[in-house]
Structure formats: C-alpha cells, structure tokens
Write a structure and sequence with these properties.
Oligomer: single chain
CATH class of the largest domain: Mainly Alpha
Number of domains: 2
Distance between the termini: 65 Å
Radius of gyration: 27 Å
Structural class: mainly alpha
Strand content: under 5%
Order of helices and strands: HHHHHHHHH
Shape: rod-shaped
Number of helices: 9
CATH architecture of the largest domain: Orthogonal Bundle
CATH topology of the largest domain: Arc Repressor Mutant, subunit A
C-alpha cells in the first residue's frame, strides 16, 4: 500500500520515525529544514555553517528517533537542538577571535619595541623604504598596528574587513620587511621578525 506520510499527523510521523521510516524522516526534514537553515545563517552569517547546523540537527533527530516524546511538538525539539548548536558555534567563534586578538596584541607589543630599538638613521630609512613597498592595504594595517597599537579585531572594525584578512596583511607585510632587510645585509632583524610572524 502506498502511504502518503506527508498527510499524517505529527504523532503518526514520529511513530513511523521510531520504526526507522526514512520517508517519515524526509517529511520532517522537508518541513523544517529551510527555517532552521535561515535561522542559523542569520546568526552565524555563513551559508556553509548554516548547512552544518542543519546536518547536525537532523543527524541528532535520527539518532534520537526512538526516544522522542510523541505528544510533544517536534518543531520545538528541533529548534531547541538548533539553538544550542548555534550558541555553541557562536561561543567557539568568539573564543577563536579572542585568542586571535590576544596573540595579535602580544605580537604588536613585542614587535614594536624591537623596531624602536633600532635608532640609526640608516635603519629608519630602510624601514621606510620597506614599508613603501607594501600594498596600500598592508600599509594601513601595519600603521594601525604599529603606530596606533590597535589589535587585529580593532583594525578589522576600523577597515571593515575580517580579522583573518588583517592577519594575512600583517603576515605578508612582516615577511616583505624581513626580506627587504635581508636583501640589504641586515642579519640581526630576522629573528624577532620571524617571532612576530609566528605569533601574529
């Protein structure tokens, strides 16, 4: 007999799901997938992460299919799982940004004094020339970090770019400066420049 599960009441769908009905699972998935995806993207700002949330939620639904209370709305259960998943991802993102911010702040506090110790006019001239060889965006990032002592997250907000983009610009800027000094016979500089790159 060809059953149209989409017409069944929710409790019937859950009963069928508990009996391993893939079709019942598909009906529930089709009913709720888009809204969960849209909610996740609204908070996570990423379609890729939104799709991961959807996958996690419905994977958990399948694993928990025999433990679901059939007299409780499945929608409430799904969105509770989605909410917790999104919150966990937001916490992870916040922690990663916080760690990146701390590393960037440490890097700038370490690197700036090293530059300041080189007081010779020749060193200053070469540094100016090296900075002039950076792209316009790299110069902005480098100046905000070194002169204004801004962190990566602060620079990102100021320039309206992501912290990871700031990190990329700074890494390339420091690499360029290191290469420029090496090409001009400055051998003492690479040690602390490399250190800055590692911790930026």
């Amino acid at each position: 007999m060809d059953h149209n599960y989409a017409k069944y009441e929710e409790f019937k769908l859950l009963s069928l799901l508990a009996e391993d009905s893939e079709y019942a699972f598909q009906v529930i998935y089709d009913r709720h997938r888009n809204r969960i995806f849209q909610t996740a993207v609204r908070y996570l700002k990423s379609p890729h992460l939104g799709q991961e949330v959807v996958q996690d939620v419905f994977l958990k639904l399948w694993f928990e299919r025999r433990n679901l209370k059939k007299d409780k709305p499945i929608e409430a259960w799904l969105y509770s799982v989605a909410k917790n998943n999104i919150l966990n991802r937001l916490k992870k993102i916040a922690n990663e940004w916080k760690a990146l911010d701390h590393l960037a702040h440490f890097s700038m506090n370490f690197a700036a004094p090293a530059f300041e110790k080189a007081e010779s006019a020749e060193f200053s001239r070469m540094l100016t020339e090296a900075i002039a060889g950076l792209s316009a965006q790299q110069q902005k990032v480098f100046d905000l970090a070194r002169t204004k002592k801004l962190t990566y997250i602060q620079i990102a907000a100021y320039l309206n770019i992501s912290p990871l983009t700031v990190k990329t610009h700074m890494t390339r800027a420091l690499q360029h400066i290191r290469t420029y000094f090496q090409s001009n016979g400055i051998e003492f500089l690479p040690a602390f420049i490399i250190f800055s790159i590692i911790f930026s």
